[in-house]
Amino acid sequence: MNHFRQIDLNLLIYLDALLRERNVTRAAEQLNITQPAMSNGLKRLRNLLNDPILVRTSEGMVPTERALIMQPQVREILYSVEEIIQPSRNFTPAESDRVFRMMVSDYAASTLMSPLLKSLRDQAPHVTIDLMTPSDVSFHDVENGKVDIAINRFDDLPQSFHQKQLWQDDFACLIHKDHPLLADYTLENYLKAQHCWVSKTGFGVGIGMTPDAVQKLGWVDGALSKMGHTRRIQVFTRNYHVAMHLAREGLIATLPSRAAALYKDSPDLVLKEPPFAIPSIDLQMIWSPLLQHDEGHKWFRHLVAEVAETA
Q: Which residue in 79, 147, 153, 228 has the fewest CB atoms around it within 10 Å?
């Protein structure tokens, strides 16, 4: 039996990095130590726990069942230590020159940033916002506090993350005013028209899309698939403004209503409700437990939430 005082608690840091990266070299790079040092740490962990921790397979290093059980417990311990040793900092919005880093989709940025900027000018004129796209960051960046908040629609989140729903949105169609679909706006004619697909959720670089992968195409096509229908997609994009611009070129853009409303005053576009039911989507804000009690961060995420309520 191992006595607590005889255990090197640095091994918890090693274990955390190994289970997140599932690769000795990447775990060493994350902790800024050598690969042999990390290999030695893994050896010591295996001896301490009497468990291989990571097992090499054809798909790479895979955690053991015990390691998977321990992973959230180890993260919680490390989060608690971080909170204890972080210095307490007073935060005065009007005097702060802090930089807040946000991961946002262009849908969230387009609909939220304008009113947020107005509030910042009134309350914290020296604060700077660093906007990043979903492809710029990873879950690890948010988890480690390198990104203050991430705003998007997330299908799966680590249990350790804090989160808040900012709003719920329905869908609308942007259609050129001269499009023949408007003369007989039915589901049948909607399906016959040429469409622009747009979607981006979660983190990471997206993969290529094909019209055959209907069940993976997102909210609009998922709803159509359940009805036994498919639409004719001519352009795939991850940028909502590109989709809205292509509506001017004759493609049908079906997208979240708040994004479509940005073009409601465009003289050559018409906003219409989709001719079929599409489940609404949630826009979420997430952040790391490491930042949960930071005074500046608390102020900023509360401001974002307040702005979202009235945007």
A: 228
Q: Both 216 and 73 in a single domain?
A: no
Do residues 154 and 76 both lie within one domain? no
202 and 68 share a domain? no
User: CA-to-CA distance for 290 and 81, rounded, in angstroms?
Assistant: 10
Assess if residue 61 is contained within a domain: yes
The pLDDT tens digits of the residues spanning 51-97 come to: 999 999 888 889 999 998 888 888 878 877 776 776 666 789 999 99
Q: What is the value of pTM for the model shown?
A: 0.71
Neighbours of 298 (CB within 10 A): 14
DSSP H helices in the chain? 10-21, 24-31, 35-49, 65-85, 106-123, 139-143, 187-192, 219-226, 240-247, 257-260, 295-310
Query: Would you say residue 8 lies in a domain?
Result: yes
The per-residue pLDDT for range 271-287, each reduced to its tens digit, is: 999 999 999 999 999 99
